[in-house]
Amino acid sequence: MIPTIVSTWPHGLSANRAAWPILSARDGDGSAMDAVEAAVRHVESDPDVRSVGRGGYPDRLGRVTLDAAIMDDAFRCGSVAALEGVVHAVSVARAVMERSEHALLAGDGALEFALSVGFERERLLTADTLALYEAKQREARAGTPNFESHDTVVSLAVDPSGHIAGASSTSGLMNRLHGRVGDTPIIGSGLYVDGEVGAAGATGHGELAMRVAASALVVERMRCGASPLDACRSVIDMIRDRLSPRPDQQLALLALTTKGEVAAAALLPGFAYAQSDAEGHRMVSVEA
Ligand code: GLY
Questions:
Q1: Domain 4-285 falls in which CATH fold?
Q2: Catalytic status, residue 258
Q3: Once rounded to an integer, what is the mean pLDDT over residues 136-162?
């Protein structure tokens, strides 16, 4: 099995590069689970990525709350919602999966759990993101708000043993109400993995993915025989036709099969993902 990793948006390219040595370890022992966690951690650490981890967008109260999830090919999963003060939300999600009896922890409980298993608390709101946030608030007061930018990182990987895994992390959309949770930590909406079929993840306006359990739907359609491209496109078409999204609302779906086939579809132009495999590291643009 030739390993493959895909990660959403341009920040996915450096994420894939960071994860590649793990996935393609010379002894053939590369782990998809370790690779997707490493890819997402890389983006969470980057203060210039405004929608994930450190430097992520705050909510309307000015608080940076993070959502993240991770899932393996045996339906084991963990996620955190509205987690504050811990940069590597994806690793807390993995700890929920591996070190608790639960699948999802939220808010103060997620933070208490993270601290109890050794994560450190730190400030995530950077001066740059605060300045951007205040500028957006001024725009909103002037009647020209533009809050439609939320570029969740989703990484999906299949390793040399054929194991597949997925992980995701986001701070959610900028002007969200305090307490809003998006699709990212909701297994089946923002992320889903079936070890016999493949994996899928969502980025963009989370409420659209949540209303149809978009990632599970993509994987289920692949399980019923659809190609990854047909599965992603058919779910995007359904969202466009039946949910009537606003013209500025983006949603993109990315899928990877256990055989290493990759596809994506999006409501709007502009979505791209990074793909790394035997042919190297590259960006792939997706037509809407
Ligand atoms: N897709 C990320 C969010 O809506 O929060």
A1: Glutamine Phosphoribosylpyrophosphate, subunit 1, domain 1 (3.60.20)
A2: no
A3: 80
